Amino acid sequence: MTTTHDDIHYYDIKTRYAGISLIDTGGNGLPVLFIHGNSSCKEIFRHQINRLKGKYRVLALDLPGHGLSANASEPRQTYSMPGYARTVIEVLEKIGINRVVVFGWSLGGHVGLEMLALYPKVVGLMICGTPPVSVGAENVALGFRPGLGLAGKAEFTEEDVKNFVSDTYGANASDEPFIVDAVVRTDGLARQYMFEAFLSPQATNQKLLAETSEIPLAIVNGANDPYINFDYINGLNYRNLWKGEVFNLTGVGHAPFWEASALFNPKLVEFLEGFQ
């Protein structure tokens, strides 16, 4: 099914993992794909879609178990960072994308890092709120601050929803019903199984991917992000870090592109201009 609203096309794409809901602004510009975080949805990128459409072919999708996408038919295989990456790649292949710059936020950034190893059509990656960690629970812990308990919790109480929204999006996020709705809608197994896979010995070494990537890697975080360990992220030995530094935007938290798009969007636009 395809619908169009405000010159933006909405597609339902069938994949082997789940039916995926996709936004595609169309056009001949460089494709730019947005991948949302845990228990979120593609609409969280509203400010970036409106800023970039026309010049770029902007793509944004709901991961399996999120938003308007279906729950996974095989949850254990799908609800992991590699599983999500394979789903995203299948969508891109089905719509004929030949090169793409990816922006991944939080979980979406981890999916983007997975794509570096799986999909040579990625020509640039920007991540936000995404510590690139190596394998094992102890190594994962190095990249984050304590207090990620809700990230892997299957069943959310009303209080959990409230706390997750506030911590993830900032104090005023509850004023946006779609943000709360996205958290409530998310398949609880998507959190549980993703987090279990992230901590397992079979996980991908994303630290190695980030440090050895030959394609440009941009890192733009909110300086007040409650989840991430800044010393860890700032201290990795990146091979091709955009502008040679990690950007930490003052006064914003885990979702700077949403909380302060006027601060964030110029960084994104400048990164994208390098691929024209």
UniProtKB/TrEMBL annotation:
Database matches in Gene3D superfamilies: alpha/beta hydrolase (3.40.50.1820)
Q: Which residues form the AB hydrolase-1 domain?
A: 32-262
What GO molecular function terms would the record report? Answer: hydrolase activity
State the name under which the record lists this protein: Epoxide hydrolase
| Species of origin | Xenorhabdus kozodoii
Q: Name one Pfam family in it.
A: Abhydrolase_6
Question: Which PANTHER family does the record associate with it?
Answer: MONOACYLGLYCEROL LIPASE
Domain of life of the organism encoding this protein: Bacteria
Q: Where are the transmembrane segments?
A: none
Against SUPFAM superfamilies, the record matches this protein to: alpha/beta-Hydrolases (SSF53474)
Which keywords accompany this UniProt record?
Hydrolase
